[in-house]
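Exam revision sheet. Question 4 asks you to relate a sequence to its structure. Input first:
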Amino acid sequence: MRKAILFLLILYLPSFISCSRISEFPDTPEGVHQALITYQIKNQPEKAAELISEYSIQALGVSRDEILQHMKKVGEEFKFKGAKLLDYRVVRKEDLGDNMFLIHGEIKYQLETQEKPIIETIKDVVYKEGRKWKVNTERFIRKIEYADKCGTKGNISICIKEAYIFSDYVILKGTVENTSKSKYSYGFAQPSIVRIKTDKGEEAAGDHPSGLFILYKLQQRIPMDELEAIPPGKKDEIFMIGSDLEPVLIKGIPISFSIDKIVKLGWGNLPASIGDEGFEISINLK
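Answer key, structure tokens:
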């Protein structure tokens, strides 16, 4: 009898072991989001970094080590403040298509330095990579590459090379070329307006220059002053619509681009013609 019981234990031992290894978080969009937040607050950066999708890492040109270092920084901040997660719940879930969701999770946590708990809403883009749900870094959605998509008016040519879609903003990378010996400016006294339309009928607009850009490498920021002028020659250019403070979510692919108020400058960097409101350049991205 004892031998039979021992045989059954040996027979089913592997299944017992595998069950004990099941993650405490379900493999769902909501589950992976809760896991990421939990590991960050508990200062477990290695586990948090493992949840970031390879899709977003490759598209944005960051490395696993950069992700890990970022998670360590976040975890250390929570540890320093003595943070303890009290509750998590999903308050909103948006379908972005292509096996992606935008999860809005409400978290409640306690800091050692404060009497009352803190309640925050944290959102992330989650993506089904293979058979597992992962989180896209920077709330990245997709990258689109364009070939020979340019627009020209007078001496100014603008080309759009890439578009990066995030949950809060759109970044378009390209070039601007001034074939004359004169200097031009975006909008002069007022910003130019950048507009895009998508294949889903969405429209979005934003100022250029827009003050501060949020780049897609772990929230680095650069000043915009150097991007205002269009000197003779050719240079790289970044256009942005939306921001963390004024989010713009588009689910489609940009198919048209335009920018207005491009002004030719004269003596003293004033408009060459008084009252000149500038001209517009449009680009068909299809």
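Marking note for examiners. Confidence is low (pLDDT under 50) at residues 1-22, 216-227.
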